[in-house]
Amino acid sequence: MLDRLGSGLKDALKKLAGKTVIDKAAVDELVRDLQRALLQADVNVKLVMGLSQSIKQRALDEEPPKGMGVREHVLRIVYQELVALMGNAAEVQLGPQTILMAGLQGSGKTTTTAKLARFFQRKGLRVAVVCADVFRPGAYDQLLHLCSQINVPCYGEPGNEDAVSIVKNGLAKHAGTEVVIIDTQGRHALEDDLIDEIIALNTLSKATHRWLVIDAALGQQARDQARRFHEAIQIDGVIITKMDGTAKGGGALSAVSETQSGIVFIGSGETIDDLERFEPNGFISRLLGMGDLKALVERAEEVIGDQDVDVNAMLRGKFSLRDMYKQMEAVKKMGPLKQVLGMLPLGGMDIPQDAFDVTSQKMERYRVVMDSMTPDELDNPSVISGSRIHRIALGAGAAPEEVRELLKYYKTMQRALKGMRGAGGKFNMQRMLKKFGGM
Ligand SMILES: Nc1nc2c(ncn2[C@@H]2O[C@H](COP(=O)(O)OP(=O)(O)OP(=O)(O)O)[C@@H](O)[C@H]2O)c(=O)[nH]1
Ligand SMILES: [Mg+2]
Fold first, then answer.
1. Res. 301: pLDDT tops 90
2. Fewer Cβ in 10 A, N or C end of the chain?
């Protein structure tokens, strides 16, 4: 589901990036493309219309902040509006707590209980689970089996039909454990006795959190379910499961975001590790192909912070070998260049593949070659002629071919950066990092 929605949204932004002017017609077209992508993902029509309205209005009425191009401005608005559509993320605390799981039959409660146990275990907390499902045959065995894979104790009393007493005993047994997760029974529909039971379990356990598990395939119906459970036990977090298997995930996500309970996690597969923390910014960034901008900003700042590296050199017309040298040093710290650029919201611009085809070993060789250049050669690579190539090669213990190869790589890089600048309008990396970092 997410792949399809993501590519729909990305295509819309790519189209925008390719436009020569960003006028009303361009914004209208962008909004139409966004609408199509969102509606296909089952997002509620009213929500889509609301989002369209705000994007149009803001794109046309709001002045771009000083120094920001219209393109970046519109992109930023789209990003912000999509994040707003996802609502607030619910809190996850990493401390002692009791979590009560709720949800209809087959929604994924038991699987998610084990996934959560794994999540908290990974955070260094001691976890235990209690099986309070007295409805499904084999419920205890199912949970026990999952928990044995991760060495988490699982309390249950197969045969006992009173969920309340099981939970009471289970909590007593695991009184010293930091995180206790209670798996409960599910029914086909919201029956009264299911609701009565969950209320009783909530009262008895004094649960710190009441998390509702919802199948993404429900689409927009997720809203009613979230509301009903919220009325009963004040759900303070929703987990949407099976996001890997349905085209309706966008509907479930946006429908829940309309309720008072935020989304805490997303289930994206059948194995115990297929659980992702839900965070609207990161989620939308990834959908739009922006990668994790925050992580990039932090990494870039680290690099800029402890080295005298002018990141802008990468993107300025004037890009010398010295800039490339510095950049290689920076990139060594930031990670592969391709990955770094992949994190930037370039709207999926095409950057020539060979600009990245440089292994770290090769970079190291290039550095040695550049170390044998004069300052003038580094600043003005155009002065490097045949005889200089031989001198540089000799000094670096390299073959002249290697020097030529380096110069060729430098030219490819320079062209790629110029291209980026052309396609992205006035593109200033530091400024942009700052801007997106602040969103
Ligand atoms: N693909 C996929 N399957 C999932 C996910 N979460 C759960 N499932 C599957 O959904 C089915 C039902 O999951 P359970 O955890 O047993 O659901 P439940 O809510 O405990 O069901 P009851 O105990 O009957 O109420 C199982 O086959 C799980 O493997 C998910 O995120 N992705
Ligand atoms: Mg179950």
1. no
2. C
